[in-house]
TrEMBL record:
InterPro entries: Bact_solute-bd_prot1, SBP. This is Probable sugar-binding periplasmic protein. Part of a binding-protein-dependent transport system for a sugar. The keyword Transport applies. The lineage of its organism: Bacteria, Pseudomonadati, Pseudomonadota, Betaproteobacteria, Burkholderiales. The keyword Signal applies. It is found in: Periplasm. It comes from Undibacterium oligocarboniphilum. It holds the Pfam family SBP_bac_1. One of its GO terms (cellular component) is periplasmic space. Its main location: periplasm. It comes from the Bacteria. Belongs to the bacterial solute-binding protein 1 family.
Length: 431
C-alpha cells in the first residue's frame, strides 16, 4: 500500500519541479547595481525585490558596499568600459545627465508619456530625470540631508528640547557634557564630515550663497565671511564629538545614538530608516528636526535608478521596472522604510510619520526652499565635489590649518575649475 502511495507523490513532485523550472525560465531578470547595505536600506531593497517578483521579474543583486556610493560609481564605470554593464544602476544627481550625454542610458520617453510622469512627479524631480528632453532615469525618493536626530530618552531625562539655533545647540551640548554624555555622534569619514559642513554652510548663509559656492563655484564665495563662519562653526562642533569616532560608518554612528552613547546626530534622513530597522519608533525612541537655523530649507538628495542602454533585448522589462517604481503603492512602502519621502505630487500623507510629513511638505513648496546637496551629487560634478570634500576633511583633521588658508585653497580650486570649464566650453563651440 505504501508503494502505491509513493509513486503518485513522486509524480506530483516532478510536475511541480517542472512547473517551477518553466516559471524561472520565463521570468526576466535585471541586475541592479547599488550601494544600499545598511539594515534600513536592505529593507528598502526587499520592497523593490518583492514588487519585481510580483511582476515576474527577478532582482539580481549588484551591491557594492561603499559610503555615499564612491566605490559603486567606480565599479559601474569599469563594468561599462569592460562591456559588462548591469541592466540597472543607482546613479544620482548631475551624473545622470553626464551619463546620458555619453549615450549610455536608455531613453524611456514612451514610459513617461503613457504614465503621465510630468503630472505625477514633483517639478524638480521631473526636471532631474530628464536630459535634453528625454526621460533617462526613474526616481525613488527624496532625502532631506539637513536633519538633526536626537535620543528622546536622553532629552527627556535632562528636560531638553530640540535646538532651533546654534546657541541653543551649544547650551544643550555643554549640559550633556557635564552629565558625561557625548553630545554629537560624528564620524571623520570625509563624505560624512562634508555632509555636516554643507548643512552648517547653509545655516550660516542662504540658499543663494550656498549655490554660489557649491553649484556655480564662484571663487569669491569661498573668501566670504559667511564661508569663514561655517568653517569656524565646524571646528567648534569638534569638541562636542566622540574622540574615538574616527572613520566609522554612518550606521555605527546611528547605533551610538540608538544606544544612548551619544545624544544627537546630524545626517540625512536615511538614518531614520536605520533607526526604525533597529526597532526604534519615530517620536518615541528618537526625534528628528531640521539642523539649527535651516528649518526653512530642504537640503536634498534624490535616489534614482537608471536603465543602461546595452541592447534592446530587455528594454521592455527595464521600462516595466521603471514604471513600477513610481506607482503610489511602491512609493509609499519604499520610502516608509528608506526614511525618504515620495517623489509624487499627491502621496498619501497618512502613511508618513511626523518627520516625513514635514520633509515632504517643505520640499513640495518648490525651488525657493530646495537646496541641492554637494556631497550627494545634486550640486556639481564629481571632480569638483571630491576636491571640495578633501579640503574640508583636511581642515577638520588638522587643527593647525587656519580658516584663511582653507579659504585660499578652496578659492584656488574654484578658479582652476572655472578656467577648465571655460576651456572645455570653448572646445565644444569650436567642434
Amino acid at each position: 500500500m505504501a508503494t502505491i502511495w509513493r509513486q503518485p507523490q513522486r509524480g506530483v513532485l516532478v510536475l511541480i519541479l517542472l512547473i517551477l523550472v518553466h516559471i524561472s525560465a520565463c521570468a526576466e531578470s535585471l541586475q541592479v547595481l547599488h550601494w544600499w547595505r545598511s539594515a534600513g536600506e536592505q529593507k528598502a531593497v526587499a520592497v523593490l525585490n518583492n514588487r519585481m517578483a510580483q511582476e515576474n521579474i527577478q532582482w539580481r543583486d549588484g551591491l557594492v558596499p561603499s559610503g555615499s556610493g564612491i566605490g559603486a560609481n567606480i565599479v559601474l564605470k569599469s563594468r561599462v568600459l569592460a562591456g559588462n554593464a548591469p541592466e540597472v544602476a543607482q546613479l544620482n544627481g548631475v551624473l545622470i545627465s553626464e551619463w546620458a550625454d555619453l549615450g549610455l542610458l536608455l531613453e524611456m520617453d514612451s514610459v513617461a508619456t503613457s504614465g503621465k510622469w510630468e503630472k505625477l512627479l514633483l517639478p524638480s524631480v521631473w526636471s532631474l530625470v530628464q536630459s535634453h528632453g528625454h526621460l533617462v532615469a526613474a526616481p525613488l525618493g527624496v532625502h532631506r540631508t539637513n536633519t538633526l536626530f536626537f535620543n528622546k530618552k536622553i532629552f527627556s531625562k535632562y528636560d531638553l528640547s530640540a535646538p532651533s539655533t546654534w546657541d541653543e545647540f551649544e547650551q544643550i551640548a555643554k549640559k550633556l557634557q557635564q552629565a558625561g554624555i557625548v553630545p554629537l555622534a560624528q564620524s571623520t569619514e570625509p563624505w560624512q564630515l562634508a555632509t555636516l559642513f554643507e548643512t552648517i554652510l547653509l545655516s550660516e548663509s542662504s540658499p543663494a550663497f550656498y549655490q554660489d559656492a557649491f553649484v556655480r563655484k564662484e571663487p569669491a564665495a569661498f573668501y566670504d565671511q559667511r564661508f569663514s563662519r561655517a568653517l569656524k562653526r565646524l571646528r567648534t562642533l569638534k569638541k562636542y564629538m566622540m574622540l574615538s569616532a574616527q572613520e566609522r560608518t554612518w550606521m555605527e554612528m546611528a547605533r551610538e545614538l540608538a544606544d544612548g552613547n551619544a545624544a544627537m546626530m546630524i545626517m540625512g534622513d536615511w538614518v531614520k530608516g536605520e533607526l526604525n530597522a533597529m526597532g526604534l519608533v519615530t517620536d518615541v525612541g528618537f526625534g528628528c528636526t531640521a539642523v539649527p537655523e535651516t528649518g526653512n530649507y530642504h537640503l536634498y538628495n534624490i535616489d534614482t535608478l537608471v536603465m543602461l542602454a546595452k541592447d534592446n533585448s530587455l528594454r521592455t522589462t527595464q521600462e516595466k521596472f521603471a514604471q513600477m517604481l513610481i506607482s503610489p503603492a511602491l512609493q509609499a512602502e519604499y520610502n516608509q522604510v528608506k526614511g525618504s519621502v515620495s517623489v509624487l505630487r499627491n502621496p498619501d500623507l497618512s502613511k508618513m510619520d511626523s518627520c516625513s510629513r514635514a520633509s515632504w511638505k517643505l520640499f513640495s513648496r518648490g525651488s525657493s526652499v530646495q537646496v541641492p546637496s554637494l556631497v550627494h551629487r545634486m550640486a556639481t560634478d564629481e571632480i569638483s565635489k571630491d576636491a571640495i570634500i578633501a579640503e574640508i576633511h583636511r581642515f577638520f583633521m588638522d587643527d593647525q590649518m587656519t580658516i584663511g588658508e582653507t579659504q585660499r585653497r578652496l578659492g584656488a580650486i574654484a578658479r582652476y575649475l572655472s578656467k577648465t570649464k571655460a576651456g572645455n566650453d570653448a572646445q565644444d563651440i569650436n567642434r
